[in-house]
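Example record

The entry below shows one chain as it appears in the dataset: sequence first, then structure tokens.
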Amino acid sequence: MLATAAPSPSPTDVLRAAMQAPSHVSYVGEMQTMRIGDQHGEVAIYRVEHRAPDMTRKWYLAPEALYGDSTISRGSVSFAVDVKRNRVVVSENGALDDPDVLAGNFDLLVKNYRAVFGPNETFDGHPVRVITLINKYTGETAMRVHVDAQNDLVLERERFASNGSVVEETRFEHIRYSNDIPPAVFAMPAKMDVVQGDARTKPSSDVNAIANTAGFAARTPPYLPEGFVPVAGYVVEINGVRTIHLLYSDGIRTVSLFEDKGPNSVDLQRYHPTAAAVGPDAAQSAEQGSTRLLVWTAAGVHYSLVGDLTQPELEKIADSLGE
């Protein structure tokens, strides 16, 4: 009797394995991240060492302002090593905002995006499966990933704007798999000042409940783009000011809403902001690579929207807050 061949994995199976890969695959390599905006772009290059399941260190090679700095993640805690200031900033690891994460929620991803295989390729000497993710509502290609066929790690990820242009690319080079990364790599440097970063509460998926703990009239947006749902809410102290952070996602794209009643300390000047309006209130809009920002004040509350959305989409969310 002939043996039955195992069925080939589906694109969704490969994506699921890719999201789980960092929990059991250890590696060393160089990573490049490029974000492209209408006005300017951003490039970061760093060496990365990851020891499964949850220890990672990144040494920045570019841009020049970050050269020599590093970040260490151990479980839910992250350490930002600032060599120029001789300090280490300790904070909770904001994994939901980490660009290295393929998607924050797999169920949300497959609900809003259709995964299809492209022709197999070779990337940096590794055979890879190529998967394209297509938005089910718009039919637009949102992302393409190259997944190592042997180790399931995402070796390259490209994200696209609605017009098909590339807005973000993350890729490994010189990737090497190893189970022998010493724990000392992830140790916090000695003889550096230790500074506590912005403190945040434990995240909750009930963003309305989080908003109700603000101590002021915080709001949640009645309108969100199709496919977006609340993912998490936090209460965070930013420069000593109690701030509500609400995070929404459709599985690939994210948008964050920050609200506070402290001094208006948001300074967008380095991003060359342009004037905008949210209802009757003056606002400022800006771009940071592929991310857009919209900032305004209404009834004494400061609002900031930050996300992978178009300016009209951000403005529609902002307008809904005043309804």
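Notes for this example: The two ends are 69 Å apart (CA to CA). Confidence is low (pLDDT under 50) at residues 95-103.
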